[in-house]
Amino acid sequence: MPHTLYRSGNLIIMVKLPKSHPRYLSLKTRELLVNGVEEGITSKAGLIAHGRGEMFDYLIGEETIEFAEKAERKAIAEMLEAENPVISVNGNVAALVPSGIVSLADRLDAKLEVNLFHRTEERIEKIEKKLIKNGAKKVYGKRAGAKIPGLDHDRALCAEEGIFSADVVLIPLEDGDRAKALKDMGKKTITIDLNPLSRTAKTADITIVDNLVRAVPNMMKFEPMYDDLDNDKNLRNTLDHMYNRLKHLSQEVRP
User: Closest Cα to residue 108, out of 131, 129, 87, 138?
Assistant: First the structure.
């Protein structure tokens, strides 16, 4: 039976989680991220980012809505048609879907590159080893010989054969400044971001408003959609979905 860890001073309290628990999947996801911090893969700031995203997941109903599915299908098509597609991997991605992101890269014939906001060589190496352990044959990012123009932070560092020369980049859980910098380089950007109001969501060419742990498996099984997708309209439809759902929920709690 899966368990989660709680710290109390110097004590680590282990609590078993039955699958019948109504928050089982959510707690399991949190546990994976906590384990990621313990492994030195996920930054503590990544825990805060996940909590913010989880709030938006509540608003969409903790399921893949039709507008997310459209974006996922379109994203598959764009990656398959790309000449040099690259998937950017950060600490949260490596902790939550290590085998899934490797399998997705295989399906899309895409390169994997570790790219971190809170960058250390130790974290890069640990994430690289985690991806290789989960089936990756080659991982870029350790040798960052190029820089993304317009960024004066370590997040500008990237691999010349990877993100720097990519034409299409999948940037799940990305920060807005780097998403914009990649767009300014002329790259097509695809993000997975539960917050439709984030700078990344509004900057990307394709925004998948879905939980990463659902989106990656979906992109493994969905067929590509080659029709045009209006990303701005898709985001508006997603916000309308959240609004209508909140309106419905508010009616349920009225006396």
Answer: 87
pTM assigned to the model: 0.90
* pLDDT given for residue 255 in this prediction: 64
The DSSP-derived string for 35-72 is: HHHHHTSS-HHHHHHHHHHHHHHHHHTSS--HHHHHHH
Do the Cβ atoms of 74 and 210 come closer than 8 Å?
no
Residue 73 in tokens: 């299908």
Radius of gyration of the chain (CA): 18
Residue pair 112/136 in contact by the 8 Å Cβ criterion? yes
Rounded CA gap, 255 and 246, in Å?
16
Domains, the chain, ranges and CATH?
3-60 (no CATH), 66-226 (3.40.50.12640)
Interval 214-225: pLDDT, tens: 999 999 999 999
